[in-house]
Design a protein that fits this description.
Strand order of the largest sheet of chain A: 1-2
Membrane topology (chain A): Multi-pass membrane protein
Oligomer: heterodimer
CATH topology of chain A: ABC transporter involved in vitamin B12 uptake, BtuC
Largest sheet of chain A: 2 strands, antiparallel
Number of helices of chain A: 13
Strand content of chain B: 25-35%
Number of strands of chain B: 12
Structural class of chain B: alpha/beta
GO cellular component, one term (chain A): plasma membrane
Distance between the termini of chain A: 32 Å
CATH superfamily of the largest domain in chain B: P-loop containing nucleotide triphosphate hydrolases
Order of helices and strands of chain B: EEEHEEHEHEEHHEHEHEEH
CATH architecture of chain A: Orthogonal Bundle
Number of helices of chain B: 8
Number of strands of chain A: 2
Structural class of chain A: mainly alpha
Distance between the termini of chain B: 12 Å
Number of domains of chain A: 1
Largest sheet of chain B: 6 strands, mixed
CATH topology of the largest domain in chain B: Rossmann fold
Keywords (chain A): Cell membrane, Membrane, Transmembrane, Transmembrane helix
CATH architecture of the largest domain in chain B: 3-Layer(aba) Sandwich
Organism (chain A): Tranquillimonas alkanivorans
Radius of gyration of chain A: 20 Å
Pfam families (chain A): BPD_transp_2 (PF02653)
C-alpha cells in the first residue's frame, strides 16, 4: 500500500510565551533596580511576594476557567463576600476551624452558582458574571453595612507573613495551589475535559463529556480559590474593607492573558499566569519606588495586554 | 438470507412538523461490507444517518443490531453499542494532541493515592498501534490535531472509533473538503476497515469515490429508498439516474435486489 507522507509542523510554533514574559520581567527588574537601590532588597522582594499571594491563588482558577472557554468577572465579588463572612464569623468568636470552612464553602458555592447560570441558561459568561458581580457586591454591602471590619485575629497571618525553611510562607501557598492546579489540568481526565470544552464545546458533547457539570465544577474551583484568597487577605490585613476585591478580577484576567491563555479557550499556561501575576505586582511596586504616579502602572499593564492580544490575533490568522 | 446482517432498519419514518423527511425507509448493512448511501440534497441521507447515530429518534420503524432490536437515545448510546458515526465536523479538539483526542472522554487512568491520573504512556502506545493499523502517517503523536491535514484528521477520528471497538463505522462525507491525494488516503482507510471485518456506511456526493470502495449502494430520493444496487452490477450513470430520478420512470427499485 502506498504511504502518503503528510506535512505538518509537529508542534505549534510559538516563541514560548513564558520565555517572553521572563525576558520582560528581567528587563523590568533591571530598570527598577537601576532607579532604586531598595528594589532588589530582600525586604522589598518579600513585600512584592506577600502582595502577590491572593492574586496568584485566584489566577490559578482563572487560568482553568479561561482554558475552559469561560471567564469570571465576579471573582472580586466572591472574594469580598467570602472575606466579609470570615470577618463576621471571627467577630462572633468562631475558631479558625469554623472560619476557614465558611470562607471556602462561600467561595465554592458562589462560583458554582456562576457555573450553573452559565451552563444552564447559556448566557455568555462575561454577561452572567457581570450580573452576579453586582449581586455579590450588594451582598457585601448588606453584610458589612458600610463600615470596615477590623481588629481581626492574627492566628492565620503566618500563611502570608510567616517564614518557612528560610522562605516567605506565601511561596509554599502559591507552590501548593499551582502544583495542585497543574496536576488537575494536565494529568487527570477532568483536565482533558476542560481543555476539550475550551477547544470545541459541541465536539466535547459528541464524545460524551458532561459539559455542564464540568463547567460548574471549574467555576466552583475558581470560587474555592477566591475563598482561599479571601482567607489570605484577611490573614494579611486583619480587616475587611468596603472596597475589597475591586481590582482583583481585572488583574486576574490580565495576568492570565499575559501568561499566554487564549480568551477563546483551549490554551493557557499556569506558569505563564504566575509570571503575569509577578509582572503586574512588580510593576505596581517598582513604579511607586521610583516615584512614578501609579496611574502609569495601569497604562503599562493595559498597553502590554493590548500588544499580547494583537500577537494572539495575528497568530490565529496565520494558522487559519 | 445468506450473509448475516450487521444492522437493519425497517420502515423508518421521521417527520419534522408537516415535512416527512424519511418515508418508511429500509436500510441494511452486512458484516464487513461498505455500504454507500447516496442521494441529492434533501433526499434524507443526513436524517437517516442521524437516526442511525442516535441523534434523532424515529417516529416509526424498527432497528436491529446483530439481530437484536435496538433504540439509540443519544450518539453516546450508539457509540456504546459499537455504532460510531463520524460527522463532518469530526468532533476533534484542535488544541489537544492526537493521542489525547483518540482517548477523549474515555482516558486510560492509573490511580495514585485515590486520584485517577492519566496514563499517557499507555494512551500513546495504543494510539500508535491504532494509527499503524490504519496506516495513518502522522509526524508525531504529540502534534495538535489543529495542525493536521484533513486526511490525517479523518484518520484520527476513525482511530478513535476503532479504539472503542466500534464495528459499524458511519462516515459522513469524509472526502468532501479534501485534496486529491488525501481523498485517496481516506478511501484506503475505508478499505482497511473492510479488511478488518468492520461494516462501513459511506455517505458521499462523489459517485467516483462510491464506486471505488463500496460493495453496495443505497439510493435515497425524496425520503424514500429508491435503489439498493450491487456496485459491481451497476454503473455510475445508472446511480446518477436514480439520484436525479431519471431512472424512476424506467424501472422500479425492486428490480435491483
Amino acid at each position: 500500500m502506498a504511504r502518503f507522507a503528510f506535512k505538518a509542523p509537529s508542534r505549534p510554533f510559538r516563541i514560548g510565551r513564558e520565555g517572553l514574559l521572563l525576558a520582560a520581567l528581567v528587563v523590568l527588574c533591571t530598570i527598577f533596580a537601576s532607579q532604586s537601590e531598595f528594589f532588589l532588597s530582600e525586604r522589598n522582594l518579600t513585600t512584592i511576594l506577600r502582595n502577590s499571594v491572593d492574586l496568584a491563588v485566584v489566577c490559578a482558577g482563572m487560568t482553568i476557567v479561561i482554558i475552559l472557554g469561560g471567564i469570571d468577572v465576579s471573582v472580586g465579588g466572591i472574594v469580598a463576600v467570602s472575606a466579609v463572612l470570615i470577618g463576621r464569623a471571627y467577630q462572633y468568636g468562631m475558631p479558625d476551624w469554623v472560619v476557614i470552612p465558611v470562607g471556602l464553602a462561600a467561595g465554592a458555592l458562589l462560583g458554582a452558582l456562576n457555573g450553573a447560570i452559565i451552563s444552564k441558561t447559556r448566557v455568555p459568561p462575561i454577561v452572567a458574571t457581570l450580573g452576579t458581580m453586582y449581586i455579590y457586591i450588594a451582598v457585601l454591602f448588606l453584610v458589612i453595612g458600610g463600615v470596615w471590619i477590623s481588629g481581626l485575629p492574627n492566628t492565620l497571618s503566618f500563611l502570608v507573613l510567616g517564614d518557612f525553611m528560610g522562605l516567605p510562607a506565601g511561596v509554599f501557598v502559591i507552590g501548593f495551589i499551582y502544583v495542585f492546579s497543574w496536576l488537575l489540568l494536565r494529568r487527570t481526565p477532568w483536565g482533558q475535559r476542560v481543555v476539550a470544552i475550551g477547544c470545541d464545546e459541541v465536539a466535547a458533547r459528541l464524545v460524551g463529556i458532561r459539559v455542564d457539570r464540568t463547567k460548574i465544577q471549574a467555576y466552583a474551583l475558581l470560587g474555592l480559590f477566591a475563598g482561599i484568597a479571601a482567607i489570605l487577605y484577611v490573614a494579611r490585613l486583619r480587616n475587611v474593607e468596603v472596597n475589597i476585591g475591586t481590582n482583583i478580577a481585572l488583574e486576574a484576567i490580565a495576568a492570565t492573558i499575559l501568561g499566554g491563555a487564549n480568551i477563546r479557550g483551549g490554551i493557557g499556561s499556569l506558569i505563564g499566569t504566575l509570571m503575569g501575576v509577578l509582572f503586574i505586582k512588580i510593576t505596581q511596586n517598582g513604579l511607586v519606588l521610583i516615584g512614578v504616579s501609579s496611574l502609569w502602572e495601569t497604562v503599562v499593564i493595559g498597553g502590554l495586554l493590548i500588544v499580547v492580544l494583537i500577537l494572539d490575533a495575528l497568530e490565529t490568522r496565520r494558522v487559519s | 438470507m445468506a450473509e448475516t446482517l450487521k444492522l437493519s432498519m425497517k420502515g423508518i419514518v421521521k417527520r419534522f412538523g408537516g415535512v416527512v423527511a424519511l418515508d418508511s425507509v429500509d436500510f441494511e448493512l452486512r458484516r464487513g461490507e461498505v455500504m454507500a448511501l447516496v442521494g441529492d440534497n434533501g433526499a434524507g441521507k443526513s436524517t437517516l444517518i442521524k437516526t442511525l447515530a442516535g441523534a434523532h429518534m424515529p417516529d416509526e420503524g424498527v432497528m436491529e443490531l446483530d439481530g437484536d432490536a435496538v433504540r439509540f437515545t443519544s450518539p453516546q448510546d450508539a457509540w456504546r453499542r459499537g455504532v460510531a458515526t463520524i460527522f463532518q465536523e469530526l468532533a476533534l479538539a484542535g488544541k489537544m494532541t492526537i493521542a489525547d483526542n483518540i482517548f477523549l472522554g474515555r482516558e486510560i487512568t492509573r490511580t495514585v493515592a485515590g486520584i485517577p491520573f492519566l496514563d499517557r504512556r499507555a494512551m500513546h502506545k495504543r494510539s500508535r498501534e491504532l494509527l499503524e493499523e490504519l496506516d495513518v502517517v502522522v509526524p508525531d503523536i504529540h502534534t495538535w490535531v489543529e495542525y493536521l491535514s484533513g486526511g490525517q484528521r479523518q484518520g484520527v477520528a476513525i482511530a478513535r472509533a476503532l479504539n472503542i471497538d466500534a464495528d459499524v463505522i458511519v462516515m459522513d462525507e469524509p472526502t468532501a473538503a479534501l485534496a486529491v491525494a488525501e481523498v485517496r488516503k481516506v478511501l484506503e482507510f475505508i478499505k482497511t476497515l473492510r479488511r478488518q471485518g468492520k461494516s462501513v456506511v459511506l455517505i458521499s456526493h462523489n459517485v467516483q469515490d462510491v464506486f471505488e470502495v463500496s460493495d453496495r449502494i443505497t439510493v435515497l430520493r425524496r425520503g424514500r429508498r429508491i435503489g439498493l444496487l450491487e456496485t459491481e452490477k451497476t454503473t455510475p450513470e445508472e446511480v446518477v439516474g436514480y439520484i436525479t430520478g431519471a431512472a424512476e420512470t424506467k424501472r422500479r427499485p425492486e428490480a435491483a435486489h
